[in-house]
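Quick illustration, no need to memorize.
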Amino acid sequence: MTALPRSVDATLALLGRGRYVADRSLATALYLALSLNRPLFVEGEAGVGKTEIAKVLAETLDRRLLRLQCYEGLDVASAVYEWSYARQMVEIRLAEVTGERDRTSIEEDLFSERFLIKRPLLQALDQHLEGPPVLLIDEIDRADEPFEAYLLEFLSDFQITIPEIGTIAAPEPPVAIITSNRTREIHDALKRRCFYYWVDYPDAERELAILKVKAPDAPAALSAEIVGFVQKLRSADLFKLPGVAETIDWAGALTQLDCVALDPEIVNDTLGALLKYQDDVAKIRGAEAGRLVELVKSELARAAPAP
């Protein structure tokens, strides 16, 4: 188990070891969340690297990653715990056959931890040999508001109350990362229990640094053109702007095609790796793709140092 970082610089280095190119403001928010045992609530557009934060932390801290993927209709049985009714029925039948125990002792045993099926939230409160786990509550905005309200006790004290057993608290708080794509507003009561950070699209310099790490096989000149093109797209009127994940995918696709420089034809053929809606693809394909390619190439040429 790796110890938690003791400074912002150490946090930045920790993320770097996990091949996550972060800016200092994110490292600061993460350091404070880790130091003060508070959840980190991360919002941002899809594909900007929110989920990756938890994955990198689990890897670099040598901790177990527990992931709760949120969705509409998520309930306590799927996220927290449920009772193993099949095993309870077997226990009842065995007790009836043997006749060795009275009804009260059977009832007490049936609702013990032996028959409890632990889901991610309850697992996060367990004692782990490798240290407190990293708990990722992913896309909380997809869950219903009642479940969001259920999380308040958990996030305040890292404990869960089970009516048949009582309150179970974590011996050491887990490292909790909560993400949201902001498809709906999250209640202030939940946000107050967390440190908050907005993950924005990276600027060109940081996105180029990300490509060097995540798509190292892409030629340097091609990577610069890819970043320039994507940055231009993000200022266009599109239904869904491409995130960093799409930039990395596109770089991988172009590298696989042995592309060394952008041209309108290759852009038209590979837009599906970058844009995920047909209306957006139709808007960029053709003359607009050619215009953007030429614009990017001319800007890079002007920025290149004189020979």
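The radius of gyration is 25 Å.
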